[in-house]
Amino acid sequence: MLLAACCRWSFSTTPTSTGCFAARRSRRTRPSRLKDVSCAASGKRGFALTVYLALSRTPHGLLDLAGPFCAALLCRGGLPPLPVVALGIVVVFAGYTAVYALNDIVDYRSDKRQLEASGADERVNYLDAAFIRHPLARGCLSLPGAIAWFLGWAVVAFIGAYALNPVCAVLLVLGCVLETAYCLLLTVTHLRALINGLVKALGPLAAAYAVVPDPSPWFLAGLVAWVFAWEIGGQNIPADWHDASRDAITGARTMPVVLGYARASRLAVVLLAVSLILSVPLLALSPLGVSAPLVLAAGLGGAWLVLPPALTLAATLEDAQAAALFNRASAYPALVLAVLVVALLTG
Questions:
Q1: Which ranges does the record mark as transmembrane (predicted)?
Q2: Which of 52, 62, 230, 282 has the greatest number of C-beta atoms within 10 Å?
């Protein structure tokens, strides 16, 4: 239902020309109005929780849970013991909740500068803005409150990860360090996107170690490459696409800003195609041994999800297609997980 809602969303904004990132002055708001209408409901019941969930991009995070679940099933070759499954769900949710919050905390000042320079972000129909985008920078919650939220979930994730396998705890800490580096490199290099791809791959990597003490290095390499290509092509590039005009104002270095819309969109198509191709041997040769018809189903289903919006984005360079690509690509791991569940039930 969430995916269907995401895919029905449409954007009212129009794309800027390639290489031109001039902000639309008519849509700017005065810097003093950072606490915009998104925070006007602060007195309403349940708003505080919504703000914290927005900080952690929970709708997106819930879809991200499918990635580690896929890795666990593929690596183990079946369903892990129920206690491991239960603890794993808690750890994965806590880990993603903490890392997404960390992103907004480290980016707090740059996000605030961006809002002050270019005004309120009026985008709608975008999964990462399902609640409020950058609630910390908008003044919807305090920095100490955001840090406490992050630390609470990080501690839960670390304790649970250590209980599963100390390697998982190390990967969690590494993910937080790399996420911090990714944020701090915002105005330095667009190649920080490579760090983003690696951070997203650490979740599935930790899941593999949670269910098998010594997973195959070849399987791990294929797993990381699969997630890495999908993340940059289907998540990083389209996510930064919408902020390109605003990022250029504040000196941010992202793929769309540095490469331009045309080259960035073509790169997204290539990386998504690579990810789909890598999924074939990953599923077929994994310990789970997914059958050829189901491997084909995962491949064709994934192609249906990500390639149409990616190709249309490359052809039109429209913001709406970047949103569609991001939203639909976010559901790709969930589609693969559904195929793996079918494989378990029919195997």
A1: 82-103, 141-163, 169-186, 267-288, 294-317, 329-346
A2: 230
Give the position of tokens 């195997």.
347
What is d(CA 322, CA 125) in angstroms, rounded to the nearest whole number? 11
By the 8 A CB rule, do 325 and 309 touch?
yes
Q: Is residue 105 within 8 Å of residue 146, measured between CB atoms?
A: yes
Beta strands in 112-230 (DSSP E): none
Task: Phi first, then psi: give them for residue 192, nearest 5 degrees.
Answer: -60, -20
